[in-house]
Amino acid sequence: MTFNGTWKVDRNDNYDKFMEQMGINLVKRKLAAHDNLKIVIEQDGDKFVVKESSAFRKIDIEFTQGVNFEYSLADGTELTGTWTIEGNKLVGKFKRKDNGKELLTTREIVGDELIQSYHYDGVDAKRIFKRG
User: Fold this and answer.
1) For residue 132, what pLDDT is reported?
2) CA of 74: how far to CAs of 5, 46, 87, 88, in Å?
3) Domain around 61
4) 126 or 132: which carries more pLDDT confidence?
5) Do 84 and 94 contact (CB within 8 A), yes or no?
6) Which CATH number covers residue 17?
């Protein structure tokens, strides 16, 4: 399964509650809910380049499947972890550097949508992207 493509956020499910659980303040949550996030995924075997651009930042993330790397969320939360492919999903397992809590995320292509799911400290959320 290839994740290559350009994806634009279309809608969110429980994303505000997820961000609140992550400790993101109200103002940043309101801004993030309308960030117009676009993701460009370039996969070459086990190597990935993910280009994220939103109303607030642009960042290129390079990683190799199964190899630990560091990443900062848009709000500055620092994480360390890995992405692996499990079946038809890209599965991310990350730990926050500040409190050691685990953030799980998956990316899965369903039809013409990229479903990005999150699980953190008992709260689940999704962001659904359309090819753009």
Assistant:
1) 82
2) 22, 25, 28, 27
3) 5-131
4) 126
5) no
6) 2.40.128.20
pLDDT digits (tens, 9 = 90+) for 88-107: 999 999 999 999 999 999 99
pLDDT band at 1 (very low <50, low <70, confident <90, very high): low
Q: What single letter denotes the amino acid at residue 73?
A: L
Number of domains in the chain: 1
Contacts of 120 (CB under 8 A, 6+ apart): 18, 21, 22, 101, 102, 103, 104
| DSSP states of the chain | ----EEEEEEEEESHHHHHHHTT--HHHHHHHTT---EEEEEEETTEEEEEEE-SS-EEEEEEETT--EEEE-TTS-EEEEEEEEETTEEEEEEEETTT--EEEEEEEEETTEEEEEEEETTEEEEEEEEE-
Query: Structure tokens of 124?
Result: 């689940």
